């Protein structure tokens, strides 16, 4: 009887980190820290990557981060900033639903972090929330402590409530919309970080965009639903000719790009334009820039990107924690090194792709396949090819017209 061959997963079973370091490949320090202050949520969204995906680690996590753990987190971030002379750090208070930890706890954490950071390191602290628990106490705390609120909203009531319901099955659009209207007021705009929208390809793209614009947010961040080759996202079928996400995003791009003065920042399209014009991007999901992200769970354990929870149970765990280990201990983890390799960390198909410098292989979590790991193109590869190709043609046509007007050849 033949024994089944052992699986070889990339990068954990393949990447030779000591050899890379010996060859002069240096790590890039972390600059963005996702801090899970609460491991439970007051909603039951059907696509949630924490509770509805492959990982079950949240069940063993403390519901709320303790004050002692928060102190260790702040000290470790400050230590990392000082060791690497970081000019700034970005800290995202996350969950679950972070506001379940309470405004006083969140404000105290931000205040303590800024006290411990080197005077030369600025801190941007954001709360990523579903919005339903934002009240006057939260807004007051955000103003006093310089925190900003990023709010998740997927479209109008019919679209949003299809996915984002509370534990009783009730829609949450009305509560979230009321908060966004408050954040649009002049006295609160300083604490608004914008809207996070997960794309639903069954919704009308221009109606969704118009609805999100009605709240006058400073930015709208469109996200592709988390999925991979083993657990495909909605509408993403094997046929490469089917590109529902590109088809959804292209009309939004046209509307935004064609506006005389774009009314809102759309980081997805801004990054794409920067890369097409030879610039860089700060996002890991486009361009293939090195990952600078670390995650801390409520019990103080250090994790890789929490988006890897969609891959397999435990895919984001590292065995390190803030009590025993500095953030530097993660920099040699294969899951971090792989996301800092640039083109060398991509599969052969991606390395030879004509849009590789813009796509960068797409989001790392979208490349996973259960039998072999992350050395694959993004599951959204056809959509990314179509979208980038379309935006490239639009930009090239504009540049050609500009050269013609200037008499250039």
TrEMBL record:
<dbReference type="InterPro" id="IPR026335">
    <property type="entry name" value="rSAM_SPASM_FxsB"/>
</dbReference>
<keyword id="KW-0479">Metal-binding</keyword>
<dbReference type="InterPro" id="IPR023867">
    <property type="entry name" value="Sulphatase_maturase_rSAM"/>
</dbReference>
<feature type="domain" description="Radical SAM core">
    <location>
        <begin position="37"/>
        <end position="185"/>
    </location>
</feature>
<dbReference type="InterPro" id="IPR013785">
    <property type="entry name" value="Aldolase_TIM"/>
</dbReference>
<protein>
    <submittedName>
        <fullName>FxsB family cyclophane-forming radical SAM/SPASM peptide maturase</fullName>
    </submittedName>
</protein>
<keyword id="KW-0411">Iron-sulfur</keyword>
<keyword id="KW-0408">Iron</keyword>
<keyword id="KW-0949">S-adenosyl-L-methionine</keyword>
<dbReference type="Pfam" id="PF04055">
    <property type="entry name" value="Radical_SAM"/>
</dbReference>
<dbReference type="InterPro" id="IPR007197">
    <property type="entry name" value="rSAM"/>
</dbReference>
<dbReference type="InterPro" id="IPR058240">
    <property type="entry name" value="rSAM_sf"/>
</dbReference>
